[in-house]
Amino acid sequence: MNAGEIAIGTQVRYPRTGTVGKVVRLEKQEKDLFAELDSTHLLYRIDQLVTYEGKGKEGPKEGKGDLERFAEEREFAKKLHTDTTHLDEMCDGGG
């Protein structure tokens, strides 16, 4: 990426680790120009960054909501629950 392509607020990605973030600061050190990302607060050489057109925030996903999934998990757990009245409690721990 060239210095002309990057500005504060540009969303970029560091391909080696997959780190994504917005540029919050530019800093020149000796011959290299670095960009600080808001996600890590680390400096990355701008020639190692690529612009990133992420999906951003998405609306509500289609499908089941949290309450529906919770109810299903509760029913599933009830089915797995076994009758413990026949146990003699010999292995309850505490020794």
Structural class: alpha+beta
The low-pLDDT segments are: none
Mean pLDDT equals 79
| Percent strand | 25-35%
What is the 3D form? Answer: elongated
Identify the strand order in the major beta sheet.
4-3-2-1-5
Radius of gyration: 26 Å
Q: What does the main sheet amount to?
A: 5 strands, antiparallel
Secondary-structure element string? EEEEEH
Count of helices?
1
> Helical proportion?
10-25%
Termini separation (Å)? 65 Å
- In quaternary terms, these chains amount to single chain
- The total beta strand count reads 5
Task: Please describe what this structure looks like.
The protein has 95 residues and is α+β, with helices and mostly antiparallel strands. The protein contains 1 helix and 5 strands. The protein has one helix spanning 66-80; strands spanning 11-14, 19-29, 32-37, 43-45, 50-51.
What labels would you give this structure?
95 residues, alpha+beta
Brief digest:
The protein is α+β, with helices and mostly antiparallel strands and 95 residues long. It has one helix at 66-80; strands spanning 11-14, 19-29, 32-37, 43-45, 50-51. The protein is 16% helix and 27% strand.
